[in-house]
Amino acid sequence: MHYTFVFIGAIVISPIVATLGHLVIGLSGNTILADYEIASFFLSPAGLFGTLTLFIVVIILELFKLSALITVLDRHEPPFLAARNAIYTTFRITTRLGGFAWKLVQKILIAMIPGLAIVIFCVIFFFTEYDINYYLQHRPIEFWLAVLLIGSGLLLTIIFSFFVIVTGGLSLPLIVLRGESVKSALFHARSLSLRVRRRFSVSICIWFLLDVLIHTVFFIAFEWFGSQVILFAKFSPDFLVVILGCLVFLLAAGNTVIDGLMSGSLALLLKSSICTTDKKLHKQCDRIHPQYFGQF
C-alpha cells in the first residue's frame, strides 16, 4: 500500500519538481548552476511559491496515505486484503479528506505567516542592493545578520506549523474511523488535544527524531557501502555503470522501506493517541488490537 502512494506521489510531484528546475535554468540561462543561483531562485517570489506548492502537495499525499494506514489498523483481515480495502475506503472518502486537507493547509499557511514575513523582509532588505553571490563571497556583518533572521523565521515557521499539525492530526482518525464531518472532527480534536497535547507533542518529537536518526544512519552506511563497492569496478566502465544502477536501486528501495515503516508507526501513533481519549474508539481499538491499545 505504501508503494501505491509512492507511485501516485511520483506522478503528482514530478511535474512540480520539473517546473521548478525549468524555472531555475530559465531564469539563469545556464544549464550548469552555481549554489548562489539556486539559493537566489528559492529566495525569490517564484521560488517561494513553488516550494510552498510542493509542500502543500506533499501534505495532502501524506494525509491520504495516513488515512489508508489508519484504516488498515482498524481491520482484522489478511494484510493484502486489508491494504486493498483500505485504499478503496480512502478514495471513497476523498471529498471529506480533501476538505480536511484544505482546512489543515489553510491553518498551516496562517501559522507560517510570521516566519515567512521575516524571511521575505530579510530578502527584500538585504538582497536588493547586493546579490547573494556578494554575501557568500565576502560575508559581511549583514550576511550573518540575514542568516540569523532567516533562520529565526524558518524556526518560527516550523514551531507554529508543528502545533497546528499536532491539533489537526488528531482529527484524522475521527474522520476516517468515525465518519465525522471535517468541522466536527476539528472541534472534537481541539477539545481532545487539550488533554493529550503534551504527551502527543512529545511522542511526535520522538518519532521525528527517530525518523531523522534512522535515515541519517542509513545514508551514512549506504555511502560507506557504495564507496567500497565502487573500488572493485573503477577499472571497468561497463561494470561501473551496472554497479551504479544497482546502488541507485538499493538506495531508492531502502529509503522507501524506511519511509513505509515510519509512516506506519506514525499512523499507529495517531490512532493510539485518539483511542486513549475517545471512549468509543478506545473500546474498538482494544477489541481489534489489544496488544497495542489495551495498556492505555
UniProtKB/TrEMBL annotation:
Keyword Transmembrane helix: yes
Keywords for this protein: Membrane, Transmembrane, Transmembrane helix
TM ranges: 5-26, 38-61, 108-128, 143-176, 200-222, 242-270
Coiled coil start-end: none
Lineage of origin: Bacteria, Pseudomonadati, Pseudomonadota, Gammaproteobacteria, Cellvibrionales
Protein name: Glycerophosphoryl diester phosphodiesterase membrane domain-containing protein
Superkingdom field: Bacteria
Keyword Membrane: yes
